[in-house]
Design brief:
Layout lengths: L1 H22 L5 H4 L2 H11 L14 E4 L5 H10 L40 H15 L5 E6 L6 H13 L4 E7 L2 E2 L2 E2 H4 L5 H7 L3 E6 L3 H13 L4 E6 L22 H11 L4 H16 L1
Parallel strand pairs: 1-2, 2-3, 3-7, 6-7
Antiparallel strand pairs: 4-5
Helix pairs in contact: 1-3, 1-4, 1-10, 3-4, 3-9, 5-6
Length: about 290
Amino acid sequence: MTANLEMDAEQIRRDIVTMIHRAGSGHSGGSLSAVEILTCLYGAVMRHDPGNPEDSCRDRFILSKGHAAPALYAVLSHYGYFPKEELMTLRCLGSRLQGHPCRDRLPGIELSTGSLGLGISAGLGMALASGISGDSYRVFVLCGDGELNEGQNWEAFMAMNKWKPHNLTVIVDYNRVQLDGTAQEIMPMGSLRDKIQSFGLKAVCCDGHDVDQLMNAFNEAGDTRGPCVILAYTVKGKGVSFMEGKSAWHGKTIGDQEYEAAMAELGAEESCAMQSLAVEYVRKEAN
């Protein structure tokens, strides 16, 4: 399983870079840092069915850091929610793949996100709702460490400790870089693990790019009697050396030369074929 997930993650990285390059805009840094997290969730952890995305017993996923939509779109496509060539319509006029996820446009999206700080609260509500509806499911929320500058997250952590839903897992994409600087420069948070634990919550730390460590963390969260917060240590722009750890690549356009360099590092076997499929897909949809 581990090898398959790692191969999936490699392809998803290539898809992210290709779709952002074609769009001429989009958030590459935070999308690339979240690849293994999302791949493990959709490839092994979550109960979900692309053929029945509204199944009441499906596990729910919320991308609280909505600007990382390219990563979520690439994963949803990879696991069968919509045709892969549609990825190349990212941010195009009329496309279902908007700059931030839209609940009403695309199957597999549980919550429209973009304004940071809302996901954990919404996820808590979804988790508690399962006790009312009688449906058995888990809820996973992915947020950024920079996003934790938003105070509502900490209100949500307090509420998580009060209600203690057993089916809620929050994952922090802990890449330590924000839009215009490092997390330490923008708003120092000290030990995030200590802060989470001081709210009475379980905190599990792992390498967010190591599939085995991620799977162990998700298993530990599933065995926890109550909510769990996974601190997944990641690298912004992971996989593309000139992007890694650079705040400039939070949302910078990927130019042609940069695209070629990135794909040389990631492997470009399928990029040209996918772009050709995209042209045909857009032409077909226009007619």
